[in-house]
Amino acid sequence: xxxxxxxxxxxxxxxxxxxxIALGLTxxxxxxxxxxxxxxxLFMIGAFCAVIFSRILSLSTVxxxxxxxxxxxxxxxxxxxxVESWFGPELGSVLINWSVPLSIILAIPxxxxxxxxxxxxxxxxxxxxxxxDQILVTFGLAIVLQEIIKYFFGANPIPTPAPxxxxxxxxxxxxxxxxxxxxxxxxxxxxxFAFAAAIIAAVFxxxxxxxxxxxVRAGMADRETVGLLGINIDKRFTIMFAxxxxxxxxxxxxxxxxxxxxxxxxxxxxxxxxxxxxxxxxGSLPGAVLAGFLLGILESFASMAxxxxxxxxxxxxxxxxxxIVILLxxxxxxxxxxxxxxx
Length: 343
Description:
With 343 residues, the protein is mostly helical. It is built from 16 helices and four strands. The chain has a single domain, classed as ABC transporter involved in vitamin B12 uptake, BtuC (Orthogonal Bundle), CATH 1.10.3470. The chain starts with a helix and ends in a 14-residue tail after the last helix. InterPro entries: ABC_transp_permease, BCAA_transport_permease.
């Protein structure tokens, strides 16, 4: 029981990332009909928003303390972060410590601008083009963005720690009444799962209970009819592209303490997230979320030492094997809609 619960927990954080990225991919495909292979790059850009914000908060001024000497007898140089000078040492240190969640303040406007620029500057010219053209141009854009990040930040991962209060682990087994010390789990991974659940709930609530969301859902079902009613559905779809970019960016921001940001992290998640979208069903938002969590948990179980001892390397291919089986038995995916990607 302890091993099963631990693997479920391990699968939740990766499944959360899959679900969030797949949700954004499905939003873009469902509204604009575009297969966006640059969506993983949006996840990467969000992660580096956290890196940039952390570096901004860590900017320091150097002063000399004549009352203290270094080992050469020179006045000791002291670095004081600007935020500590402006807000005081206590509040300043808190801001630096909480730089990852606070970087959401930077990530939201940045991702909106990146999403709008991407859609208006490139994607809109490929609405009527074949999906193969869309894949090629967006994949090329992803490579360009990846190389830009590599140029400015280097090829090595950049550690971005969680706030100190969430830095450790806790005894999850004892919390639910099992034997103490059997299920030790990091705080931040549960924070990420809760954050992902909140974002997913917010997106579904926005689409389900707001007038804007209802119009978007109607446009996804019958774009021409909605347009004939005098509604500028294209403008709303552009806004949805920006929202999808924000979802991917926020997923990247909060994932940085789990996986240190690097220039290829977008590609690492992109292919798997597309598999998630296909398994869930192209154009199905609930299917994308369901498949994200299911495949994340399945991948976690496949990574167990007991499983790898029987089938070495199965954790690297299990998601693709499941995708093959599901598409052979249910070509539209778990919750796919009729007519989507069947032309």
